[in-house]
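Weekly modeling sync, notes
Attendees: S.R. (lead), two postdocs, one rotation student

Agenda item 3: backlog of single-chain predictions. S.R. asked that every request posted to the team notebook include the full sequence so nobody has to chase files. The rotation student volunteered to paste the first one in as an example of the format we agreed on. Action items at the bottom.

Example entry:
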Amino acid sequence: MLLIPAVLLIGLSATAASPSLNTAPGSAPVGATVTVVGDNFSKGVRGVLAWDGDTTNMPKFRANRLGTFKVTFVVPAKASLTEHLVTALTPNTAESRKAKVPDAATVVLAEVKFNVVAASPDPTTPPTPQPTPTATAKPTPTATAKPTPEPTPTATAKPTPEPTAEPTTAPTATTAPTATPAPTATPAPTATPPETPAPTGTAAPSASTAPTPTIPPGTPTPAPTTTPAPTVTPSPASCGTSLQALVNAAPIGGTISLGACTYRETVTINKALTVRGPATIDGENSRTYGIVVGASDVTIDGLTIVNHRSPAQDGAVRARNSSRFTFTNGFIRNASGGCISISGGSGHLVANSELAYCGQEGFHMNSTTDSAFLGNHIHHNNTAHLYDPFWEAGAGKAGFSLRLAFVGNEVDHNGGPGLWCDIDCRDATYTANRVHDNEGPGIFYEISTGALIQNNVVWRNGWAHAAWGWGPGILISSSGGADVVDNVVAWNADGISVISQGRSDRDPATNNYVHGNDVILAPSSTDSSDKFMLGWLEDWNGPLFLASSNNRGFGNRYWHSLAEPTTRFAWQGGKSRLVDFNVTPGEEQAVYLTTAQKDAILSGFGLPTTP
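Predicted structure, as returned to the notebook:
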């Protein structure tokens, strides 16, 4: 725990606008997610929020050119039911500024009072998880071929995506490409699409690898350890009536409150409606869907959805061509394809829910606007490797979406990438997520434009496909306008990669800015490929290194387990010394962390201090 024993208060002119903090909401119970907005700060000022002087698990911030910022935090579990103080701190010494760790001379820029209140009694409190999938030990990530289910589709070039495609036949897995360090562009390996075209695919790295709605309470689970799927337990007793009958009888805009019982049916909702649990919908491994939504303003609160045979790029919970669909405080587990799938519409929200043990992925998102995933736990999807992670598998994948936000999620132990946006995502936001132990990149932004990737903690990702920069904690692939700032990136196969490929569906790799991140790396003794803490990589005669492309790095902090010179950076070729990297546009004014500084940063975020 990092405590601030003393602070200095900045004296401000009576005529100048003072920095201020505002919280939304102004009071909340333990475990709630709170948004903090800072205003009237100095342009570019950096710091960290503190809860009663303690910065543990609190977000870092950086004011934009207008002097504002917005971050989120979770009300600490041990907070008492009283008034607390949230403060914006900035380091006051050169040593602490370099390490970005506040010290005893930290300056208080602004503060705001926040009341912790008791949680309101709520009959819709999520039920105790009722695990259903058969226990399966997590396979050790490797770059070797996966088991091939029957039949195996022939690999073909990536199909032209159709934004609202709804596949009807699930593709089976393909054999994973073998990772090689040679950075030569080839078409992406992908499964042959079903009769209705699947919307996305992935370009291959090197020769064969592939590469604001209101925030509700959310309590991402801190750093879970690797565990197999839970043991099957009996479902609650069957409900006395049909849920579909209750839905049909309810008025438009009405609310249905359910008890702790189990429905064994597919429920279709084609009108504005709220359905509250606790209740379970069990597909008994025979039905395709648990809930199908075809109308706007539908809310599912506190339900458990288990054991469905959802197709690929689809989900046990399915929403199509509607807006403002909300799934909150629930559990979706053990679906054959995706846990949840949302296509079309705007204002969707998936919050404070568990998406786990699904055969392909936790979520599938397509052609949405102003939607968000907040405070969810997305884990142990595609662990049997039945789907190709270079096509679509892992925690989840989104495409053709505008202003999609991932805030405060825990994403771990998935058989593929973590949070992945691929093909024409625009202005996405990834903030305050904890992403770890995924076989692919932790945060993956591909052939898209305009992303803010800030204040995430990303560790132990990418080791299954680690060649030539394809195994990073954060990957920007053939995309532009990404702002990667103030993240902690540790113990991944690579740190941060910005990769440009000569693919026909690419977005220009321009205006990418990587700055203020802490990157901590320890190469594996069994991996002979170059490991990059920050790699700017291009396998064609593209724009990545042109001055007009405005790609740049600044002020990142690094720790490497090996002494120089060993290849650890890349800008127009590998760099083995920080002094050489610092004179390229790819990095300026970067420093090395001491081991003590590295340990303080990792401990402050609850991360291991060794790989």
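Discussion: group reviewed the output briefly. The CA atoms of residues 122 and 277 lie 10 Å apart.
Action items: rotation student to repeat for the remaining queue; S.R. to check formatting next week.
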